[in-house]
Amino acid sequence: MSSASIQNAENSSPYDLEAGFVAYPLLFQQSATEAPELEVLQVEGAGVTWAELILDVNKVANFLTSRGLGRGDKIAILARSSREYVTVYLGGLQAGVCIVPLSGMASSEQLAGMIEDSGSKLLFASSSTLDLIEPFMGKLNGLAKDAYIAFDFDKEGWASFKDVIEPMPTDVHVADIQPEDAFNLIYSSGTTGVPKGIEQSHYMRYQHVLRFSQMGLEKGATTMIATALYSNTTLVAMLPTLALGGRVVLMPKFNVEEYLRLAEQEKATHTMLVPVQYQRILAYEKFDDYDLSHCQLKLSTSAPLREHVKRDALERWPGKLIEVYGLTEGGIGTVLNATENPDKLASVGQPGMGAEVLIINEEGEVLPQGEIGEIVGRSDAMMTGYHNRQDLTDEMIWKHPDGRIFFRSGDMGRLDEDGFLYLLDRKKDMILSGGFNIYAADIEAELIRHPEVTDVAVIAIPSEEWGETPLGLVVLAPNAKSSEDDIQVWVNERLGKTQRVSGIVTRDDLPRSTIGKILKRELRDEYIKQSVS
Question: Which residues face 75 on adjacent strands?
Fold first, then answer.
C-alpha cells in the first residue's frame, strides 16, 4: 500500500479487531436482500429501489474486475451528486478498489495533481465538471485513453457509463476486503499545490456505522443530505444510512425552500447539515409553515454551530440536535447532544464512542481541565495516513507518555470540569497582540449577539503598535441601522481590554467553502493587502 501509514509511525496495528469488523459491501448487500422493494435512494424526484440499484452496483463491480482492478487500486469520481455517482461508489467498494471523490471547487491544475498523486486508473465524470477536466485530459500518468467514463453526456474520448456497465453480469462478487484496506482517499481543501490525501480504511468506515447506530440511526430511517458527495460530511451520514437499512434523499444543490419541501414530503427522520445551512433554513420566513414532525435527529458538523442557532433549532425544529466535532483524518471526535445539554450549547460536547480528547501545551505536555491549549485525540476511527506523505503523517501525531498515538487537531480549546470541549480558534489563526493570545471565537461569540449582526468573522491584521490586532467582519440584517462605529463601541464595551477590536467592517457576505467553513485565509489576505497598500 502506497499510503503513508500510522502503523509505520507507531510500529503497531491501529485496528482493534476485538471490537468486530464487517466489510461495508456485505452490509449494503444485506440491506438490499432484506428490503429489495425499498426506495433506497432519491435524487431530484427520481427514486430507485434496492432491487434496481444493487443490479447496477453488481455490474459496476464486475466491470472494474474485468478491467483488472481490485484491492489496492483506485478510481476517481469528479461529478455532480447523482444515482450514477452512488452506484460507482458502492460498486467500487464491492470490487475492493479505493474511491477517490474529487471536489469540483478545485482548479484543473489541482485536480490533475490529485489524480496523479492518487494513482487512479479510471475517471468518472458528469457534464458539470467537463470544463475542469479538458485542460489535462489525455495528459496524466496512469490514466489510459479509455479511462474516461461519462455519466450523463456523449463526447469524443469518453466512454458512456451506461454502455460500459450494461453488458456486465449481475452476479454478486464481493472482494476479500481486509480491515486495513483503503476505503476512500479524500483530499483536503487547499488553495495552492496538491492538497493532502487522507486515506480512510474499511475499518474506520465501519466504526462510523457503529457510531451512527449508537446515535439512533436504524432501519427505516430517511436521511436528508444536501452537501456534495465528495465531502466527508456527506459520506459519514449517507454510508451508515445505507448500511443500516435506511433510505437517502440526496440534494445535488442546496436550496432552503426545496430542502424544507422535501423534508416534509419525504417525512425525513434524520438529516446531516453544515452550520451555514442551519442558519439559512431557520432564517427562512416560511420555516414554521412546514411540517417537520417526523424528524428524529438533526446532525451538524464541519464547522462550529453557533450557540444562538442551536438554541433556535431546539425551540423550533422537532427532534434531537447533535453537533459532531472531528477531523476527516479521524482520531478526534466529540458529540454534543444539545437537546440533553441546553446549558452546554457553547461547547462541542464530550468525547464520542471510543474517543479520548486531551489538551496539550507547546511543549507537548498534557494540561489540566480549564487550561487552553491544542486539542489532540484518538479513537477507533483514525485514518491510515496521508497518501504518499509519511512526513505529514508523522507531523500529525502526538505521542502520549504511555506510547499511545493521538492526532493533533491544529485547533485551540479547553475542557471544562464536566469534560465538555470548547473550541477557541485554529492554532494558526490565533491572534498575538501585545504579547497576549487572543481567540477570535471569543470575540465572534460577542459580536453575533448584536441584534443586527447575522454573520461574523474575526481575523488578525498587522499593527505597528501591537504586532497584530483583531478586525471584526460582519454581515448585517436587512434594514439594519447600526454603523460600523456603533457596532465597534457596542462589542468593545463587552470585551476585555486585550480583546477589543481595532475596527469593524460590514460586508454583504463572508467567503465560505462548499461545506460552509468561513475561509479566513482569503479574508486575511484581502485585508492584509489593504492595510499595507
Answer: 99, 122
Q: Where do we find the cell 447539515? A: 273
Which fold is adopted by the domain 22-178? Rossmann fold (3.40.50)
Question: What distance lies between CA 242 and its chain's CA centroid?
Answer: 18
Question: What does the angle CA 209 – CA 215 – CA 220 come to, to the nearest 5 degrees?
Answer: 75
Residue 445, all three cell numbers: 461569540
pTM of the model: 0.87
Strand bridging mode 46-49 / 39-43: antiparallel
CATH of domain 430-532: 3.30.300.30
Contact in structure between 447 and 456 (CB atoms under 8 Å):
yes
Under 8 Å between Cβ of 414 and 424: yes
Q: What is the pLDDT of residues 412-464, one digit of tens each?
A: 999 999 999 999 888 877 888 877 888 888 899 999 999 999 999 999 888 88
Angle CA(351)–CA(356)–CA(358) in degrees, nearest 5?
Answer: 100
- Say if residues 377 and 419 touch (Cβ distance below 8 Å): no
- Summarize pLDDT for 492-526 with one digit per residue, the tens: 999 988 899 999 999 999 998 877 888 888 898 88
Question: Residue 305 corresponds to which cell in the numbers above?
Answer: 454551530
Listed in sequence order, the residues at least 6 apart from 255 whose beta carbon sits closer than 8 Å to its beta carbon are none
DSSP helix/strand/coil, 122: strand
Phi, psi of 299 (to 5 degrees): -115, 140
- Write the DSSP symbol of residue 303: S
Question: In angstroms, what CA-CA distances link 190 with 106, 274, 513, 519?
Answer: 8, 19, 10, 10
Pick the CATH number of 201-427 from 3.40.50.1820, 3.40.50.12780, 3.30.70.20, 3.40.50.300: 3.40.50.12780
Q: How many Cβ atoms are within 10 Å of 474's Cβ, its own excluded?
A: 26
| 148-150 sheet: strands from edge to edge | 159-160, 148-150, 122-125, 74-78, 98-101, 182-187, 197-201, 385-386
